[in-house]
Design a protein that fits this description.
With 219 residues, the chain is of the alpha+beta class. Strands 1-2-3-6-5-4 form a six-stranded antiparallel β-barrel. It contains five helices and eight strands. It binds flavin mononucleotide. InterPro entries: Pyridox_Oxase, Pyridox_Oxase_CS, Pyridox_Oxase_N, Pyridoxamine_oxidase_dimer_C, Split_barrel_FMN-bd.
Length: 219
């Protein structure tokens, strides 16, 4: 039996986005919106949907955690041999999407992905909690099939025995960060009557990295 949601609707009235008063740098606006989400106690404001598409032309989407906003893009960490890692190896074009319901805001980033420096990945890996480090070794290759949960738990216990709590877990070569260099970023603020504000920043191709053009899109 189907489920019908056509009577479900909300009016979005929490904010507005004015093209004249937004910062010239989209990074400033992104950081501001992340801070707003944090202040509003959004759970995991750094969680973003990452869409990739490999050579098979089939898009895939999943949540990853943004771990840094750099001067050129956003960084997340994962297993390089996962399904997403294989997509990225075949096609570096990707999008990420944040949605913060509490703020009635959405941010869509379009860009190209590349691995970050291995030393930087290792520094972050070593900073992670011990159990998360062990977990990264268990989930290899991430996205591969495992017979059952017991197999995972046995591997976890074996690794815990090999690397007790205060020992150093080696950084896996198959694990690390990716940076999505932002080419385009759209900020969406929900408004009443479906008259939402959508402002997209596009990087100027002929100028230095600081140049961005904005335009308003129909909602
Ligand atoms: C809130 C949340 C945060 C997540 N963060 C990450 C992350 O930072 N890195 C990661 O590899 N997977 C993360 N995952 C798991 C991914 O969504 C996904 O299941 C996993 O990376 C395998 O994706 P793939 O098979 O498409 O490669 C997270 C999932 C959730 C729900």
């Amino acid at each position: 039996m189907s489920m019908d949601f056509t009577d479900q609707r909300l009016s979005y009235e929490k904010g507005a986005l004015d093209q004249q008063s937004i910062p010239t740098s989209p990074f400033e606006l992104l950081k501001g919106w992340i801070s707003d989400a944090t202040e509003q106690k959004v759970q995991e404001p750094y969680a973003m949907s990452l869409a990739t598409c490999g050579a098979d032309n089939k898009p895939s989407v999943r949540i990853v955690l943004m771990r840094e906003i750099t001067e050129t893009g956003v960084v997340f960490y994962t297993n390089y041999e996962s399904a997403k890692g294989q997509d990225i190896a075949e096609n570096p074009n990707a999008e990420v999407l944040f949605f913060w319901h509490e703020l009635e805001r959405q941010v869509r980033i379009s860009g190209s992905i590349a691995k970050i420096d291995a030393n930087k990945s290792a520094t972050y890996f070593q900073k992670r909690p011990h159990d998360s480090q062990v977990g990264a070794w268990v989930s290899q290759p991430q996205s591969g099939e495992v017979a059952n949960r017991e197999v995972m738990e046995q591997t976890f216990d074996q690794l815990q025995a090999d690397y007790p709590e205060n020992s150093q877990v080696p950084t896996p070569a198959f694990w690390g960060g990716y940076e999505i260099t932002i080419n385009e970023i759209e900020f969406w603020q929900g408004r009443a009557n479906r008259m939402h504000d959508r402002i997209v920043y596009t990087q100027d191709s002929n100028e230095d990295k600081a140049g961005w053009t904005t335009k308003r899109l129909l909602p």
